[in-house]
Each structure stands twice: as C-alpha cells, then as structure tokens.
C-alpha cells in the first residue's frame, strides 16, 4: 500500500481511498471475508502471506491500513508479517499494540480510521510514534520521495466530493514512472512494480460501502455493500 487518503468527521461516515502499489506478479484476492478467525472483517487478501493491506470491521465501521516505510525494508527471521497489522487493528482498535510484538518487523505506517478519530502509528524498526489527527482530509504515503504526493494531490482531494470527485482524480492520473505520481508503474530488470489495486471505502457502524478496481485509473469499479 503506497497512498491512503482519509476524510473523517464526527457523526459522519469515514471515507477512505487506498491505492496499493506492489510487484505485479504477487497474487491477491478481491475484498471479502477471508479470515474465519476475524468473521467481521472485510478486505483484500494477499495470497503470499495471507494478510491484507486494508481491512474494515463491519460492526464498528473501523478501517485499518498498512503502508511499508523505507527505514527498515527487511524483517528479521521469525518476525510477524506486516499484513497481520490491519487485521489486528481493525479487530482491536487502538489496543492493537497489545496483540502483536513489532520487534523485528520491517518498518511501517499503520492507519486506523474510526468514526471517532484518525490515528497513525509510525514504526521505523526500533521506535513507534503514535499521532492523532484532527477532523479533515489527510493523505499518507510510503515515505521518501513519495511524500511529494501530498503537496500535489492533498489539496485536490480536500476540495473534491466523495466518491465521484475522488474517483475522477484517480482516473485523471495514468500510471507514471515517478514516485510522486498518484498511480505508478516502474520496471527494473524485468520486474514491474505498479499500482495494482484501488478501493474506495465508506464505513460506518453496521454498514460498509466498498468500490474497488484492479485498474483504478481506468476502471471498471466493482461495488460491494454489506450491512
């Protein structure tokens, strides 16, 4: 996951755009209830590690997302996969840190978008920093050169309506070989790293409205409504 936009306000549905950037050959499943141990959670499933990049708890309206960060790119042997973090955070809320030990994990940014607040945890491989964000529209990325995206695109998302305005912003950005692009495609030594998935999440307690596409700059977008 490389780009997340969140709009939240108390008393309103939490709205999220999540764009996942990944090696194109890595297989994954579209959003569904893939985890019997987490029956209330809906998200796309990574077939390699079994976790997810984005999960929503239908009962509480909480959405959790994980983005890779550059400080520590490789986990130590035996450390948990970052793909478990959205599952634990969506299930446990802010208490997710009691459900997993991040020691040895690769660095990450975890986003917890709930009806009553937006919180991020930034882990550089050694230290965890928790930040609460006031009401409004926010954008986070995987860090480094990608942080330039917020300078370009955050004002546009803040001014645009959800979901149609946000979807038009993605449609207007074809894939580019530029870490500051909203939709990316980079090829090196025969390996292609690109935006492979986009989803729009509208979540409130007891109801989830989800639209998603494997080619979000073109579509089509499929819809899933639960609750």
UniProtKB/TrEMBL annotation:
It holds the Pfam family TANGO2. InterPro entries: TANGO2. This is Transport and Golgi organisation 2.
């Amino acid at each position: 996951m490389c780009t997340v936009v969140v709009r939240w306000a108390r008393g309103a549905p939490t709205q999220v755009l999540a764009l996942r950037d990944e090696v194109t050959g890595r297989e994954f499943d579209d959003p569904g209830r893939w985890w019997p141990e987490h029956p209330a959670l809906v998200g796309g499933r990574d077939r390699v590690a079994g976790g997810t990049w984005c999960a929503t708890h239908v009962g509480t309206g909480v959405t959790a997302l994980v983005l890779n960060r550059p400080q520590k790119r490789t986990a130590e042997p035996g450390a948990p996969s970052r793909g478990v973090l959205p599952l634990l955070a969506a299930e446990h809320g802010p208490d997710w840190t009691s459900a997993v030990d991040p020691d040895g994990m690769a660095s990450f940014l975890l986003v917890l978008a709930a009806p009553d607040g937006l919180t991020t945890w930034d882990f550089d491989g050694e230290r965890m920093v928790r930040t609460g964000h006031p009401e409004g529209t926010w954008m986070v990325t995987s860090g480094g050169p990608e942080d330039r995206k917020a300078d370009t695109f955050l004002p546009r998302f803040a001014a645009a309506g959800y979901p149609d305005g946000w979807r038009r912003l993605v449609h207007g950005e074809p894939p580019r070989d530029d870490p500051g692009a909203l939709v990316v495609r980079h090829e090196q030594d025969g390996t292609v790293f690109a935006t492979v998935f986009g989803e729009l999440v509208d979540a409130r307690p007891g109801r989830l409205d989800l639209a998603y596409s494997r080619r979000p700059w073109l579509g089509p977008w499929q819809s899933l409504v639960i609750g």
